[in-house]
Amino acid sequence: MSEALTQLETDIRVDLARIAHPGAAWLEAKTGPDGKPALDVLIVGAGQSGIAIGFGLLRSRVSNILLIDKAEEGKEGPWLTYARMPTLRSPKDYTGPDLDIPSLTYQSWHEARFGKESWQALDLIPRAHWAAYLLWLRRTIALPVRNGCELLEIAPASDGLLAARVKRAGEVETLYARKIVLATGQEGMGGWMIPEQLAHLPASSVATVADDIDFESLRGKRVAVIGAGASAFDNAATALEAGAAEVHLLCRRAQIQVIQPYRWLTFRGFLRHLSDLDDTWRWRFMRKILEMREGFPQPTYDRCARHANFTLHEGAPVEAARKTGEAIELETPRGAITADFVICGTGIDMNFAGRGELAKCAGNIATWADRYQPPEDERNERLGRFPYLADDYAFTELVPGKTPWISDIHLFAIASTMSFGPSGSSINAMTTAVPKLVHGLTRGLFRADIARHWASLSAYDAPQAVVKRPARKMGGSL
């Protein structure tokens, strides 16, 4: 470790000690059915969101927490797995999991590692550096994390607790917690979509942008990428760089989307207060933004366009697909395209029933379609399938009283978007979204213990001072 990084970590300890107010713990752990203390909060996911949430809870003196992640240490999130861009797309000065502590920002870490001149010369953050920063941040603030630990199922337990069945190294155990946060990023409430027209094709011929693709095996092959967002371009570029013979990117729009709505919405008013609006405005804003889809920066396009064997097809949605020998023929309004392999960059759809961990409650999680009917010209079935969350990011019931325990399951993932705007999958929203979630968690924990707090106040008798009264002399004479 460099001397500068060692000094930074010393400064961080000083900073956090100075703002540690109040210092007193205020929660008492409940006892689980196994006779052991139950967690106050179990956070599922130890990527950037999980780290920020854990940090926010520690600062609120909620320390009886645990983060779990099915990935091995350092491989949490997409950064070293299916993220295929050289750099983050967010501007380098966006803050996030630091929660507005200057010494914990990426900039502070970068300058300590590589020097201030390197920071000044930096354009965008290399994704491998971001992954290294997140791991450093997690270790520096001493978050309790259990890697290689997969959530299998959430169920209600006695005394208002939740039972989380988890698997680690082949062993299954149950963790009990008062609250569970699903900080599961992109896949939180569904899965990556393969368009219906391609669903019948063999798995060896089709993948999504989140799959583990052997790009070297595509050398000399014809590749079609469905979709025209940033991830679709990243995968097209990776195939080109691996030596694919041809890469065709199919955009359903007549003209490709080059506007990035997330740049517009990155201001405190929107990030902090969209969730305070009524359903009409929340739906209107997020439908507009999500239907535009996320744009891509110039370097992302240039990375593909520099290859002569790259072709962009606009106005070319896939209408049908069929296997022809070893190849795949894709029918579009602009003609047929033949490929040896297809990569789908068509986003994520909600499918609660497909999430094993939600098997006991999936059918009773309310969606936006259950709670709000937009005007005819604003309808969108896919967005209607997003979960309709309470103001503390908790699930709400479709049928009240059927699964009341889901009010202690809080979702901080891409599926939170319709209720809260960018939050659980966006760096730009963290410094406003995470405090809102932490506020909701601590509010719920406080309210659940209100009888204990009242009894504690009623019994409180610690004097702040000792008052000495001088003895009075008897006056007069006998």
Topology:
Blueprint: H1 3-18, E1 39-44, H2 48-59, E2 65-69, H3 106-114, H4 116-121, H5 127-140, E3 145-147, E4 149-156, E5 162-168, E6 171-185, E7 190-192, E8 206-208, E9 222-226, H6 230-241, E10 246-250, H7 261-264, H8 268-273, H9 279-292, H10 298-305, E11 310-313, E12 320-324, E13 327-332, E14 335-339, E15 341-344, E16 348-350, H11 368-371, H12 381-384, E17 409-413, H13 417-420, H14 430-448, H15 450-459
Parallel strand pairs: 1-2, 1-6, 2-3, 6-17, 8-15, 9-10, 9-15, 10-11
Antiparallel strand pairs: 4-5, 5-6, 7-16, 12-13, 13-14
Helix pairs in contact: 1-3, 2-14, 6-10
How does this model look, in words?
It comes from Bradyrhizobium vignae. Keywords: Oxidoreductase. This is Oxidoreductase. GO terms for molecular function: flavin adenine dinucleotide binding; monooxygenase activity. The chain is an alpha/beta fold. It has two domains: 3-189 and 349-448, FAD/NAD(P)-binding domain (3-Layer(bba) Sandwich), CATH 3.50.50; 194-258 and 295-346, FAD/NAD(P)-binding domain, CATH 3.50.50. It is built from 15 helices and 17 strands. The chain has helices at residues 3-18, 48-59, 106-114, 116-121, 127-140, 230-241, 261-264, 268-273, 279-292, 298-305, 368-371, 381-384, 417-420, 430-448, 450-459, and strands spanning 39-44, 65-69, 145-147, 149-156, 162-168, 171-185, 190-192, 206-208, 222-226, 246-250, 310-313, 320-324, 327-332, 335-339, 341-344, 348-350, 409-413. Strands 1, 2, 3, 4, 5, 6 and 17 form a seven-stranded mixed beta sheet that branches. Strands 8-15-9-10-11 form a five-stranded parallel beta sheet, covered by helices on one side. α2 (48-59) links the parallel β1 (39-44) and β2 (65-69).
